[in-house]
Amino acid sequence: MKKNYVTVLATLSVLSYGNARAKEPKPNIIIIMTDDMGYGDISANTHLESANTPNIDRIAQNGILFTQGYASAAMCLPSRVGMLSGCYPAHQGAYTVNSLQGVPGDRMIISEYLKKEGYATGVIGKWHVGGEFIPWQRPLQRGFDRAFWWFDSTHDYWRADIGRSETWGECGYAPIYDQDKIIPKYNTGYLTSDIGTQSIAFIEKNHDKPFFLYVPHHCAHVPLQVSKQVYDKYAPLGYGKNTTVTRGMYDVLDQYVGKLLDKLKEYGILENTMIVFMSDNGGGEPDGQLNDVFRGGKFTFLEGGIRVPFIISCPSKITGNRIYNYPVMNIDILPTILDLVGSKLEKPVDGVSLLPYLNGEKKGEPHHTLYWSGGLEAKSGFAIRKGDWKLVSTDAGVGLFNLKDDPTELYDMRSKHPEIASELKSDFENWDKKSCAQSFSPKILNTWHSAQDSVKKLNRKYHYSSTFGED
């Protein structure tokens, strides 16, 4: 009898705990993804030149700053494919900015998972995950309730009505959509500010329910544009024009990160909101973004092209104000979020949940090996990192480097350690067997060709041009 009584108590205790867990409010999720932001462009990271991002630093103070956070690609579209899907871009045929498919339709992305969990979902900013003529690839068909977005890689910051329509194969200046409608005339101000304002409006509307907000900012992608007032604030630093403009662009971005954090605090939901802050790839070297000591930049698999600002904060679930030194990648974001909200994967992914590592449940490094592939079409080579060793072949540099001793990748060790170079090359080739060809399938290409007449009509209707706005 005593044994049964203990069993009943234990059962009641489990039920009580389960009920308590069920009553806990689900954490909100916000992903802020910047565009071409270098590792040294946030003041929380080490930086050689001046960086002034106090509000982004607030996220780090409440969370985990990753010193070895990686993008899954060295350019926009494939990196976004990796982050949203939790899988290496090469395993989905995404290598360049012109992948038509983006994430395959049979693989769920973060928004679709969270929508199934009852979350309100929104994307505000640069979509650029394919789908120019593929209806199922657009935000509203990929699990987002609210969408303020454009397809392409590039957009003017002052003239949001500038665009060439849904033109495939060209980077830049597609029109902005509000939900599924093109905005023919839209000149409210500066694009970074507009994205910030729309993001805050989403929080205001959905603060009383669990929400997922994806904010893919355009900053600091070209064209480099900021108001003269902000430019003049940074001119005394004595940098070149591009770097000075970029400092100003980050100033505006940081202000709106601060407003977003203040809004969460106002509603009392900051503690229970996971905020992920990262860049889609490293800084573009000619464009004024700063990659600290790292060689290379955007479009290369040297550290400057793939090691990025990377922060995760969720004060109610993860102890903050810490630095994490093991390598992680943006493919880890999806499984980490699903682990946090208690949702299961529909299909296996390449990323891993970082939650048990951040909470001390697991020791050691989440990944012993990481991979990057430019594919045959991109001709930008490959990279593999295994422990501290990295073998890289890219237009800006080729070699075997020990990142612990040589984070700047200046000293090629292939001649001294040919056996390590051979091992890494073999490991990459085995991994690469799962890679897919660039997603230019006949079905997709036929869809594109059949859409050209409507594109021409749309261009004539709205008289789109590709001229820059104010500088």
Topology:
Layout: H1 2-23, E1 28-34, H2 54-62, E2 64-66, E3 69-70, H3 76-85, H4 110-116, E4 120-126, E5 146-150, E6 177-178, E7 181-182, H5 191-206, E8 211-216, H6 228-234, H7 241-266, E9 273-279, H8 303-306, E10 310-313, E11 322-324, E12 328-329, H9 333-341, H10 355-358, E13 369-373, H11 375-378, E14 382-386, E15 389-394, E16 397-402, H12 418-432, H13 442-450, H14 452-462
Strand content: 15-25%
Helix content: 25-40%
Radius of gyration: 22 Å
Poorly predicted spans:
1-21, 163-171, 441-445, 447-471
**How many individual helices?**
14
3D structure, described in words:
Strands 7-6-5-4-8-1-9-10-2-11 form a 10-stranded mixed β-sheet, sandwiched between helices. Strands 13-14-15-16 form a 4-stranded antiparallel β-sheet, covered by helices on one side. It has a two-stranded parallel sheet with strand order 3-12. It has helices spanning 2-23, 54-62, 76-85, 110-116, 191-206, 228-234, 241-266, 303-306, 333-341, 355-358, 375-378, 418-432, 442-450, 452-462; strands spanning 28-34, 64-66, 69-70, 120-126, 146-150, 177-178, 181-182, 211-216, 273-279, 310-313, 322-324, 328-329, 369-373, 382-386, 389-394, 397-402. The protein is an alpha/beta fold and 471 residues long. α2 packs across α7 (241-266), α5 packs parallel to α7 (241-266) and α6 packs across α7. It starts with a helix and ends in a 9-residue tail after the last helix.
